[in-house]
Records
---
Amino acid sequence: EKDKGLIRDSWESLGKNKVPHGIVMFTRLFELDPALLTLFSYSTNCGDAPECLSSPEFLEHVTKVMLVIDAAVSHLDDLHTLEDFLLNLGRKHQAVGVKTQSFTVVGESLLYMLQSSLGSAYTTPLRQAWLNMYSIVVSAMTRGWAK
Ligand code: HEM
């Protein structure tokens, strides 16, 4: 319960528009693994990562990712209701060539974004609470990926 409060409050403190935070997260992701950029078919329409991340298609994916996280935060009490959606999402990412190990790098990028946005509010318990939630999301996506 304490974990849920930490997650909800920190997510809310990022403000209503989560897209800028998503850009920070994906900038970090493409720094950690630049090859992920090429999995987006529309990456041929842009040059480097910063340019791609300002393109409408990439911004749309960033927006979708933030909406999934938002859904998870909203459903902390009943994450299992997202199960079918997440299984399907994992399957779709398998189809576009994302490896399950990359979900771990996404997690690191999420924590990086939280740390840069929250500053001193980013504590060890908060980090652990986010990791726990993210690992539930990734475990469902990974099961869907393998199906
Ligand atoms: C769709 C790549 C991580 C949520 C897609 C697509 C690609 C892609 C190529 C299809 C084209 C598009 O819709 O833009 C990646 C890569 C990731 C990643 C390379 C990093 C390893 C994530 C994560 C989430 C997510 C972590 C959410 C937690 C979505 C959603 C869609 C999508 C909601 C739309 C699926 C649909 O069409 O129903 N992703 N993705 N992605 N991705 Fe990702």
---
Amino acid sequence: DPDLAAKGEKVFKKCKSCHQVGEKAKNRSGPVLNGIVGGAAGTVDGFKYSKPMKAAAEGGLIWTETELAAFLAKPKAYMKGTKMSFAGLKKEADQLAVIEYLKSVGE
Ligand code: HEM
């Protein structure tokens, strides 16, 4: 849905201080998010994750849309000890829109 992805690009402004996407994306204080929807958690090359994110990765966590929405709603409630210092996206519409945007940026 291109309209939802466009809305999600605006929501992604809240993420840009820490995350990059696209061909030239680099890890910043947060990992590159290319291909994150449907991808394995905690596996971006060269990024130093928190202990709980590493544990989730070892446990096989996959960022399905459902898991991502729950994480983005309240990161620190979803994953105690995550180093993602972000209060969260309260509105379900914003969660869904940013996920759609992340899908559109692909690999
Ligand atoms: C991790 C998305 C905002 C810093 C992650 C992950 C996702 C994500 C999907 C997991 C990545 C993986 O498993 O490889 C988002 C989105 C945001 C957002 C969509 C905006 C709505 C932020 C902000 C910051 C931040 C504002 C910095 C203040 C981090 C850090 C991690 C992370 C440090 C690693 C967490 C850990 O190792 O526990 N983010 N993020 N994020 N993000 Fe964000």
---
Amino acid sequence: VVAKKMTALDAGARATELPPLTAAGWAVVSDRDAIKKNFNFANFNEAWSWMTAVALAAEKLDHHPEWFNVYNKVEVTWSTHDCNGLSLKDVKMAKFCDEVAAKYLK
Ligand code: H2B
């Protein structure tokens, strides 16, 4: 199976997709076309469990995070190598990150 090459979000898609994400705490990175967010969990176990859920979804979608974890904190960046910028896969994974995090961050 040949993976479909992702295309960058056009101006219209950005105007629709990015505001809900920035409202949810995602920030557009200043020096490259990417979005990032810091997640704070109760402890390492919850952070790692969340990372595991995100990792499994990333494999399914063939779209992988850039992330940095220290104990209960995870800094995640989404961007698409294919198009050297933001694609719908980044939006999808960012939403998934928030959905799963909501189960921990009560
Ligand atoms: N992850 C991200 N974030 N962007 C990509 O363009 C990408 C990926 N491409 N994971 C996938 C893997 C590609 O390299 C493989 C060959 O499908």
---
Amino acid sequence: MTVEVERKFVCNAEIMGKLQDIEAECIGQRQFQDQYFDSPDFILTLKDFWLRCREGLWELKCPAVSGPTPDNETQTLCTRYREITNFPLIQSEVSRIISEHTAEGSESNSSQREQTDKVAENEDTEISSLDDTKWLTDLNLICFAEFKTERCSYMLEREGAVRVDLDQADFGYCVGEIEVLVPEGGDMNAALQRITSTAAELGLSCEKRVEGKMHVYLQKYRPDHYAKLLNAHIL
Ligand code: V4E
């Protein structure tokens, strides 16, 4: 399993020139569609879990809490998420999160108790089923965000790989990301340092965390969900 460490930045007109100046290699341009899923009462995202299907490939981003605490500035600007890409593992992890949540509230809410039973029943079924929609229906997961992104990717060698993505989402938002992948248990401080120095090379000086595509999408299209996440300090 890997931990994705990243810092987002405002994508301005000069960034392409700066990437050339620091000899970043353009590794390609692609378009993809993302669909994100959660329960109607936002069980996953309120715990900072992000379940996504991108062009048929599933991924679950989970909050990465272990490891060293970065300094204040790095902590503010960078995010760290564990990435699960193994489909059966994603299914069992999502099922666990939902059943734990449902069990916590089951004594005070009978409709939630029904859901617990439903999840418990599903634990007896074959979870590695290739039928995507059945497991989503069984866990009462629905798509809450769907958008396309046009992405230009660059690689830099800085005592290890550093990736820079320039994203343009189809709902009118552009954002850049500097990203390092760290194998679990790998050197997190070194990764954060590589991101900070790449940001400096690119002349990025923002002190505030830059909003990701999801932030802007929810604000625009799902204001209730957005408000709940803001209130829970997830976004
Ligand atoms: C982790 C997360 C979300 C899932 C999407 O993550 P992100 O890396 O922003 O998207 P993308 O398209 O670049 O994915 P990649 O191609 O790198 O796999 S949506 C919201 N979050 C949490 C989050 C947060 N709280 N703050 C910031 C700045 N980013 C993400």
